[in-house]
UniProtKB/TrEMBL annotation:
Family: Belongs to the transketolase family. DXPS subfamily.
Descriptive protein name: 1-deoxy-D-xylulose-5-phosphate synthase
Ranges for domain Transketolase-like pyrimidine-binding: 373-537
Keyword Transferase: yes
Entry EC number(s): 2.2.1.7
Stored Pfam families: DXP_synthase_N, Transket_pyr, Transketolase_C
Domain of life: Eukaryota
Keyword Metal-binding appears in the UniProt entry: yes
UniProt cross-references to InterPro entries, sorted A to Z: Dxylulose-5-P_synthase, THDP-binding, Transketo_C/PFOR_II, Transketolase-like_Pyr-bd, Transketolase_BS, Transketolase_C
Organism, scientific name: Olea europaea subsp. europaea
GO-annotated biological processes: terpenoid biosynthetic process; thiamine biosynthetic process
Protein's pathway: Metabolic intermediate biosynthesis; 1-deoxy-D-xylulose 5-phosphate biosynthesis; 1-deoxy-D-xylulose 5-phosphate from D-glyceraldehyde 3-phosphate and pyruvate: step 1/1
PROSITE patterns listed in its UniProt record: TRANSKETOLASE_2 (PS00802)
Amino acid sequence: MATATFQQPFSVNAHLNDHSRLLLPKVELSTVNFPANAEFSRLNFYPSFPSTSSSKEYAGHVRSIPNVDGSTKEKVPTPMLDMIKNPMHLKNLTPKELKQLADDIRSELSFMMSQTQKSFKASLSVVELTVAIHHVFHAPVDKILWDIEDQTYPHKLLTGRRPLVSALSEGNGLGSSTRCCESDFDPFGAGHGCSSISSGLGMAVARDLKGKRDRIVAVISNETTMAGQVYEAMSNAGYLDSNLVVILNDSRHTLQPKLEQTPKTSVNALSSTLSKLQSSKIFRRFREIAKVLTKRIGGGMHEWAAKIDEYARGMMGPPGSTLFEELGLYYIGPVDGHKIEDLLCVLHEVASLDSMGPVLVHVITKEEPGVEYNTIKTSNENYTESEKDEDIVVVHAGMGMEAPFQFLKNKLQDKFFDVGMAEQHAVTFSAGLSCGGLKPFCIIPSAFLQRAYDQVVHDVDRQKIPVRFAITSAGLVGSDGPTHSGAFDITFMSCLPNMIVMAPSDETELARMVTTAACIDDRPVCFRYPRGAMAKLNPDPCIIEPIEIGKGKILIEGKDIALLGYGSMVQNCLRAHSLLSKLGVDVTVADARFCKPLDINLVRMLCKNHAFLITVEEGSIGGFGAHVAQFISLDGQLDAGIKWRPITLPDNYIEGAVPKDQLALAGLSGNHIAATALSLLGRTRDALLIMC
């Protein structure tokens, strides 16, 4: 494994996989040349200065195949799963057979996990729950909704999509999202989280208004309970009182390490019995009768009885269960999520109630070990605690956390705040930290930053508060598909009046942009980079200076045509240059660095010295290319004769695939850029040949 190490004020120790767009393959006439064979690297925000202390080694991890000899894990037979083509085939199975089916699903997912880099631990935690749901409810007539895609693979295996799920081990197959158009068993898209209760409530109200009787089941998880929309939806569900089943998959996961030492919600014989009692028809009808009688008695009897009921049920339930009651949901639980018999008993009772209002079933599950990792070492990292910038803090938001950020979290400890899927809070929290005199770096994946755009506009940009946004997973994201794709951040961030918007073309530029962001204290700034590349902080006098705001650079000078790349697409421009140079085309390649403020002197010079200009970005229409077009139009460059062509992501969602195939599908590969240049030069035949 190769390692690319760049000493920086925020140094880069990069371990990147073959698909990283910040690594440039060895091409002719390139001014940047990195090996493309590594795993991942880290983004760190504290400078580390030379000291006499010995260097330390820090380890990251990569997944390993279970077999010691490196051979492929043999697939375990799954006879029960082989019989299931759709959920109807579960209806006549006994609890023992359902348990065997759950074991087969777990074996199937474990085998896939051994063949791919994808973790299925969230899906492994809901295997028995998924089997029980499909045994009790009648999908697709009954609607089953999921909050996050990571939990849906057992659901997909049981609803006729086993071949597509299995194809994931071959690098293709289902994308990351469970879309309503993908199958009749998916009434609403899953992927970005927090949507299942809101959409389920909408379907429940529509059902009631149309006089139908189908049942709606919304499954949520620990991660999504961090987001405010979940509680907004619960509150509205309690008010509307429509029949709705909410299942909370509690995998006992917490973002706060200090809470990991607190007592966990226990599931034992007593709690199991109480859960069955709470869900039973007799108990529910008794409560309904009691409500009617106390209302007739009057004199405050109904309110008094309701308080006693709430208090008694709060005593029986785990800590926090009364929150759901306060929101208007009838709480049942906790239920052991790995005991088929208990799940069937409770869900059968819940499904049999014709008039129950919203119900929350609290299911306790255990996340099984996911991706296992082998050690990758990065060394020569010296830290001098007394020379840190004490004002730098990090706020992390989004679904899950990459291993490098976990390393950073462990290092920064109380100065690293992981707020989970609470992106709106993360942005405004960062603004408050800045107002308090600190220097917050707000790390949010591009797709999740979309959820906090109102806060970015009003709580940060409008007030010119210096929050530094590190936008991760920008552009296409491989097998995670459109759900996690970062296609829009260039457009929606660059339209803000006070925002500085930049993107690095390689690891060195990334580290310098971190340094640049740390130096900006009068306005917000953001920088984006693709999945798989991050930087660390080590000072080096040679490259410690921040980048001049709004200053791009020319990498290679030519005369026939100019390629102006933004961010990681600079590398593909260099690939196109290599191809075109072999065909006798003299190409200029420039790195824009900044979308806003745009380097107008660089753009003007490119227009003056070339007849053709191509802008290239891994973002949607309306981003970097639109800013260039605005300038050259107002500056009269179009009138002067420059022929300009933008290359952006197409105006559609690109499904999950390996990154190389996604870029080719989007028309952003080096070959596509070269073909566009040849077409502009009138060499149509060569353009067609280069795409063959």
